[in-house]
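Human: I'm a chemist; would you kindly supply sequence and structure tokens for a protein?

Assistant:
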Amino acid sequence: MTDSHDNTPAVPEEPIANPGLPAHEWRPTDVDERAEKRAERQIAGMFALSMVCAFLFVVAYFTLEIGDNFDTFLGLGASTVALGLALGGALLFIGIGIIQWARKLMGDHEISELRHPAASSEDDRAATLEALALGGEESGIGRRPLVRNTLLGAVGLLGLPAVVLLRDLGPAPEDKLASTIWTKGMRVVRDVVGTPIKASELEIGDLVNAAPEALFPTEENGYPEIEGVELQVQKAKGAIIVVKMEPGDIVPAKGRENWTVNGIICYSKICTHVGCPISLYERTTHHVLCPCHQSTFDLADAAKVIFGPAHRPLPQLPLAVDEEGYLIAQSDFTEPVGASYWEREKE
């Protein structure tokens, strides 16, 4: 439809000129500057209280032990109550402040727009951006630095409790993975049964899940008894795989030329990605596969990673034989076993 005089498209009228909105009523903060400033201070006060609560959460976390059970509400421990109240207060005061900001300071005019069945035109998009800019202007965030800055401070400090709670994920490994129970001269034994392995017993292509002899103490070997959590930790760190291949297939890493025995080579069983146990062996390629995320290591070439998310080769255990022909360790692993961690030095 066009206008008969200037041939320009006529602007269609809105189907409902007034959809029935009540008459706008001015709020005290709209007409009274003192009320506006008072509301602004109240909102900033809410955000400031949130910051105080976030700080108190951190203080309570480090000063109150979980075992502190002196008289508190409903028999709950002091640490639980303090942390709950502090974190709840930090969130509550931010919520109250934002609600009061919307009720008292942000523009409260009703805005309506026609729905359209297809993608917005460029004019509509421009109008939307204009409406967003208008909303930002009416919110007053640009001209109310007190409210804006206290809100940013409250939200920023709210991250402190989250960072502090990372401490509860458990202690850092420190140097606990840098060494295992393996020592010089300790025999390599079959996992589960604990029988020592003779080098002459293995054939080309064999893969044996093995462990340190110290985990199977007897009167004959003289190793002390290990129980409970410590036993499980040492089992996890000391687990190995022993593989025999043609000696000519092995490409030893520098300084590891004497770490094998007639084609028998030994590596940690723990994947260097996230610590899954590995033992899926491809005899013809000498590749071992981690079943968790398909990291693949070439055992003939220093267990280098040839596929998957792992970034480090499997640690190698140097082998030798004793006078009875049994496989023994020349020493402990020369590098940490298991998955990578923050404290581990980058190679």
Notes: The two ends are 74 Å apart (CA to CA). Residues 114 and 235 are 69 Å apart (CA to CA). The longest helix spans residues 33-63. The chain has two domains: 28-112+119-169, 188-329.
